[in-house]
Amino acid sequence: MTLPNQLTLLRILLTPVFMALFFGNGPAPFLAFVVFTVASLTDWYDGYAARKFGFVSSWGRFMDPLADKILISAGFLCFCILGYFPAWILALILLRDVVITALRGYSMNREKPLITSLLARSKTFIQFVVLYFMFIYHLIIFYGFAEKIPQVIRFIERVRLIPALMASVMILTLASGSLYLIGNRIHLKRLWMSIWKKTVPSDM
Fold first, then answer.
1. Which of 50, 48, 188 is CA-nearest to residue 115?
2. SS3 track for the chain
3. What is the reported pLDDT for 2?
4. Are 4 and 12 in contact (CB under 8 A)?
5. How confident is the model at residue 157, as a pLDDT?
6. How far is CA 188 from CA 8, 24, 110, in A?
7. pLDDT reported for residue 199
8. How far apart are the first and last CA of the chain?
9. What does pTM read for this prediction?
């Protein structure tokens, strides 16, 4: 269990802590923001440590992006529950992540890693940016600071900026997923055939 893998595991363990604090009262939402920030920083540092010290493993290559998906999905789920954007947007994002994670696990099990596009790497960064924007907006509303910047708050609500940002994130997420599937269609075909053989009787 190298340092990068420990940080990846920490990111996963901090996710339920962040979610529990998010729906609390008093200082809890702000503490949730702090925990979320610490968890997201581990994403940067575990990659930095892996590159600098050569701590690269199959476990880490699989779990690092999975930990990102868990943290990001948890963040989106929290804001979706509060009604910041429609649930169908989150459903499509989660569906894409489940498909890509299954394909990634299958390909790495066969020791043939997926081809990753620049769009896929940029997608995670943009998702974090949107999450931080929603978090800051939520804290401003929750702690009653909206009256100090009423014009900004009214603009965000009038143009429905958060649903628009989430729709953009969804499109970007689905686009990166499509590129994954196209670039790794051989793995996808093999995965489908493997599922077919295990679920459909051989005499059919």
1. 188
2. CCHHHHHHHHHHHHHHHHHHHHCCCCCHHHHHHHHHHHHHHHHHHHHHHHHHHCCCCHHHHHHHHHHHHHHHHHHHHHHHHCCCCCHHHHHHHHHHHHHHHHHHHHHHHCCCCCCCCHHHHHHHHHHHHHHHHHHHHHHHHHCCCHHHCHHHHHHHHHCCHHHHHHHHHHHHHHHHHHHHHHHCHHHHHHHHHHHHHHHCCCCC
3. 76
4. no
5. 93
6. 27, 42, 12
7. 66
8. 46
9. 0.86
pLDDT at position 142:
95
For 141, other C-beta atoms within 10 Å of its C-beta total: 14
- Give the residue carrying structure tokens 């489908």: 192
Contact 174, 127 (CB under 8 A): no
Tokens of 179: 């590129």
pLDDT along the chain (204 residues), means of 10: 81 95 95 96 76 68 86 96 96 92 75 67 90 96 92 94 96 88 72 65 54
- 3-199 topology per CATH: Four Helix Bundle (Hemerythrin (Met), subunit A) (1.20.120)
Beta-carbon contacts of residue 55 (< 8 Å; ≥ 6 apart): 2, 3, 4, 5, 49
